[in-house]
Amino acid sequence: MKFILGSGSPRRLELLAQLGLTPDDVRPPDIDETPLKAELPRPYCARMAVEKVRAVKADPDDLVLCADTTVALGRRILGKPGDAGEAAEFLLAMSGRRHRVITAVAVRRGDRVWEKDVVTQVRMKAISDLELNFYLQTGEWRGKAGGYGIQGPAQAFIPWISGSFSAVVGLPLAETAGLLQAAGYPLFKEAP
Ligand SMILES: Cc1cn([C@H]2C[C@H](O)[C@@H](COP(=O)(O)OP(=O)(O)OP(=O)(O)O)O2)c(=O)[nH]c1=O
């Protein structure tokens, strides 16, 4: 059995390392991430994680893990911004409000798929023009859902969350450990 991380996200690799896990291989999936018409954020996020895990090629006994992180503002899905202008639009839309960050994790072994999604509420303070411009210049918004990373300088804008910090960064670690065990990965085997 090989353990394959189906993700190009450096955050997910780092988060797995916190559980003492190093994948045998890293195979980023390539899927169409366009939401369906009127698709709500949580089902969208779960669908993405499952589609990713099905798209990764692996041997029948291998264990594949994929995830998707989606920022939801009401019914609106905020994906990864295409440019600084879109990142600014996202950040201003979240400024002074609560939003949700959903991370879905999917594990596959052979034809079986296990999936779990975790919703975290995040409050962002009202961001000034100075703060916004500073943040955009850091480039931290690139490649991140909603255009911010809670693990970086954006923490200055986030006074409160309710849920899982690791899920917001990209992988809910307690739920990930549970799914891996359900799929038969010996995560907590005793030392010989
Ligand atoms: C909200 C938030 C998202 N993110 C990141 C995590 C994910 O990498 C990214 C969301 O995009 P995803 O589509 O979930 O993942 P990805 O495209 O980076 O990688 P892959 O599909 O290969 O697994 O946003 C943070 O790093 N910090 C945050 O606070």
From TrEMBL:
Cell compartment(s), UniProt: Cytoplasm
Keyword Ligase (UniProt): no
Gene Ontology cellular component terms for the protein in this record: cytoplasm
Biological process terms in GO annotation: nucleotide metabolic process
A GO molecular-function annotation: dTTP diphosphatase activity
Cofactor(s) named in the record: a divalent metal cation
Domain of life: Bacteria
Pfam families from the UniProt entry: Maf (PF02545)
Catalysis performed (reactions): UTP + H2O = UMP + diphosphate + H(+); dTTP + H2O = dTMP + diphosphate + H(+)
Primary location recorded for the protein, binned into one broad class: cytoplasm
Assigned keywords, A-Z: Cytoplasm, Hydrolase, Nucleotide metabolism
Residues at the site labelled Important for substrate specificity: 11, 69, 151
EC number, UniProt record: 3.6.1.9
Catalytic site positions: 68 (proton acceptor)
InterPro entries: ITPase-like_fam, Maf-like
Family: Belongs to the Maf family. YhdE subfamily.
Annotated function: Nucleoside triphosphate pyrophosphatase that hydrolyzes dTTP and UTP. May have a dual role in cell division arrest and in preventing the incorporation of modified nucleotides into cellular nucleic acids.
Protein name: dTTP/UTP pyrophosphatase
Organism the protein comes from: Primorskyibacter sedentarius
